[in-house]
Amino acid sequence: MARIGLIGAGQMAAEICVRLIRYGGISPDEILASHHDPIKARSFRRRTHVRVLLDNRDLVENSRVVLLCVRPQQAKDASKQVAVLFADRRRSLVSIAAGVRTSSLARWIASPQVAHFHPSSLLMATDAYNPGPSLWTTHPKMAHATGSRLRKLFEKSIGEVWAVPEIQLPKYIFLAGNAPALVLRVIDAFVKAADLEPKDRQVYHAIVSALYHGVVLEKRSPSDIVSNIATKGGVTQAGLDVLEQRWHIDAIARETRDACLKRLLGLADPEQR
Questions:
Q1: Burial readout 251-267 (b: 16 or more C-beta within 10 A, e: otherwise)
Q2: Are 97 and 67 in contact (CB under 8 A)?
Q3: Chain centroid, CA 29 distance in Å
Q4: Rounded distance, CA 33 to CA 44, Å?
Q5: Which of 32, 89, 186, 272 is the most buried (most CB within 10 A)?
Q6: Confidence check: pLDDT of 123 > 50
Q7: Residue 198 has pLDDT above 70, yes or no
Q8: How many CA atoms lie within 13 A of 258 on its CB side?
Q9: Cα torsion through 216, 217, 223, 228, rounded to 10
Q10: SS3 per residue for 100-154
């Protein structure tokens, strides 16, 4: 029996699988994946060297821990399709489908042995270990030892994992999952606005590297860094004045948050809304 099975063989499933092998010390022979599309199955196999089945029931029958790596809209059907195989409660289901609550997962498979794992979106930015915080929450009735063991598996394979209350999970998803892309989009816009010759990668590296050293390594607060750079009456302050007065950064951030949370809720099971 495989140690881990992944229902779904998309991009995020592949990112998780590669790290389970590379950093988690799990052999490809201990992992299975499933996908109904033979072409995508072969693509996943080429990248991960993991066997891919075409039937979800076969995968669950042969796995101890099942990762549900499907879109939120598909989570209910995929879970109910294999629910009978969780009846003995010897298997655990871990979903990465954003917006799907553990209570729904438990109801669909008639077992509380379920958890939600929200992998860092920065897995898409780097192959390095610990690219950013991932999120973790479990069903209240999931065995504590099981939940702890699974969380440690992801910490070893992917990096930092924050255990958060499920009621707060959407806000953490916005901050840890959505915000990195939003921040990078802003940096990209300003680099393009500088209208320089194509040495963009050097500029990106310089900006992000300096911010990493200040915020992460030296533990400085972003507001302190901003106030140190933007001296009163200076050039940077002139730019900040435009952003604050014309665009109202804090208001835009809240509107962006609300849009992300609304979409997250829209992807969830209608019974949860």
A1: eeeeeebeebbeebeee
A2: no
A3: 25
A4: 9
A5: 32
A6: yes
A7: no
A8: 6
A9: -150
A10: CCHHHHHHHHCCCCEEEEECCHHHHCCCCCCCCCEEEEECCCCCHHHHHHHHHHH
DSSP 54: S
Rounded to 10 deg, the angle between the 179-193 and 200-211 helix axes is 130
pLDDT of residue 195: 86
Q: 3-state DSSP: the chain helix, strand, coil percent, rounded to 5? A: 60, 15, 30
Residue 269: predicted pLDDT: 58
Structure tokens of 136?
Answer: 């973790």
CA 1 to chain centroid: 27
C-alpha to C-alpha distance for 191 and 193, rounded to whole angstroms: 5
Cβ proximity of 261 and 99 under 8 Å: no
pLDDT of residue 204: 87
**CA angle 257–263–268, rounded 5-degree value:** 125
pLDDT digit string (tens) for 229-272? Answer: 998 899 999 999 999 998 899 999 999 999 999 988 887 655 55
Angstrom distance (rounded) from CA 60 to CA 82: 7
Residue 95 in contact with residue 170, Cβ under 8 Å? Answer: no
For position 47, what pLDDT does the model report? 95
For residue 143, name the pLDDT band (cuts at 50, 70, 90). Answer: very high
Do 85 and 27 form a contact (C-beta atoms < 8 A)? no
Please, are residues 112 and 86 in contact by the beta-carbon 8 Å criterion? no
Cβ–Cβ < 8 Å for 53, 80: no
